[in-house]
Predict the structure.
Amino acid sequence: MNDDQDQVVLVDQDDREIGVAEKVAAHREGKLHRAFSVFIFNNQDNLLLQKRADDKYHSGGLWSNTCCSHPRPGESTEEAAHRRLMEEMGFDCPLEHILSFVYHSPVSSELTEHEYDHVFIGFCGDVTPQPNPTEVQDWEWVHVDDLQRDLKQNPDKYSYWLREVLDRVIAAYREKRS
């Protein structure tokens, strides 16, 4: 199948579009592509985490931020973030873009993440997610201090991109809350 759902937007180091590629092929070849990560917080300084479904094509069974994915060709990154929040976790809320970063990391012996990642945060009450079981096997609200501590003690429980950006996200979140 070669529809937009299986394609990622290839970008250069300045996030300028340079083409499209099939999603798994882009990860096999380590091509830089556009992605996003969503972090949803509540009023008690808790972050909503998801545990990725075991059968995801990479990083299955790892705890990660609320949701993440790739915009489709022709779709804005913010539209994609709202779409995937609903598809993965079963709810939507206002989102704010807080930062972007590029990272490059092997996630298996065959696949490499090389992403220009746009990070969004959102605030909502203690929503009860209705996760899609093909995407998410578990979820929990975790206080940001407890998460930072556990991530340092048990980094292998967490996705690479969460480990890479969590401290910056929490700093931006706290700045917004003050």
Notes: The domain at 4-177 is CATH 3.90.79.10 (Nucleoside Triphosphate Pyrophosphohydrolase).
